[in-house]
Amino acid sequence: MSTTHDAGNPLIEVREGTVIFQQGTPCTTMFVLRSGTVALYLNHHTPQQFELVQISKPGASIGEMGLFEEYPRSSTAVAVTDCTLVEIDKENFPAFIAAHPEETQQIILDLAHRFRTAIEEVRSSHSIIVECLSMLKEAQLSKKESLKDRIRKISDYLLDIPEDVPPELYLSFNSRFHGTMF
Predict the structure, then answer these.
(1) What was the pLDDT predicted at 87?
(2) Distance from first CA to last CA of the chain, Å, rounded?
(3) Fold of the domain spanning 5-99
(4) Half-sphere exposure of 122 toward its Cβ, with a 13 Å CA cutoff?
(5) Distance in angstroms (rounded) separating the CA atoms of residues 111 and 113
(6) What is the C-alpha separation between 165 and 171, in angstroms, rounded?
(7) Is 168 exposed, middle or buried (0-12, 13-18, 19+ CB in 10 A)?
(8) Is pLDDT above 50 for 1?
(9) Which of 88-92, 115-119, 127-131, 174-178 has the lowest mean pLDDT?
(10) What pTM value is reported for the model?
(11) What 3 state SS string does the chain have?
């Protein structure tokens, strides 16, 4: 790591493949990308790993949600290429805002874009859920109709027993020559 500073915040150099922060860990800083590409993952290095996004736009913010809300990291950030980042803590954030109003505006735009994307994903997921529930309802109705048909077939079979033939003999005979009732 380098000792260079930007408005009181350390400017750090990370090598390709470096984990910048880990999902679930406490969040005390955020980062602003100066150069390189960073990928954000859910469940990094597990069978359920999922890449959320790759960020390569200089001035883009990474990890700011946890810093502002003091929640644990919601994802893992990994350097896809060698990167230069400004690491900002809560105490030095006002100095960063004063020194970099354009990048502060970019942080706000990043947050708005991420929120909009999340809303679109919720809408999409909602429509998929509604469609699946509709298909499930149709399948249940079809299953009910199928059950009604089977009951009708059984009742027709049972009610069609000649009166002079014992039911056990009729069932045995019918099963032997016509297969099972179902």
Answers:
(1) 94
(2) 74
(3) Jelly Rolls (2.60.120)
(4) 6
(5) 5
(6) 10
(7) exposed
(8) no
(9) 174-178
(10) 0.67
(11) CCCCEECCEEEEEECCCCEEECCCCCCCEEEEEEECCEEEEECCCCCCCEEEEEECCCCCEECHHHHHHCCCCCCEEEECCCEEEEEEECCCHHHHHHHCHHHHHHHHHHHHHHHHHHHHHHHHHHHHHHHHHHHHHHHHHHHHHHHHHHHHHHHHHHHCCCCCCCHHHHHHHHHHHHCCCC
φ, ψ dihedrals at 51, nearest 5°: -85, 120
Q: Which amino acid is at 111?
A: L
Residue length of the chain = 182
Q: What residue type is assigned to position 108 of the chain? A: I
Question: Which residue matches tokens 């406490």?
Answer: 26
94-116 pLDDT, tens digit per residue, is 999 999 998 889 889 888 988 89
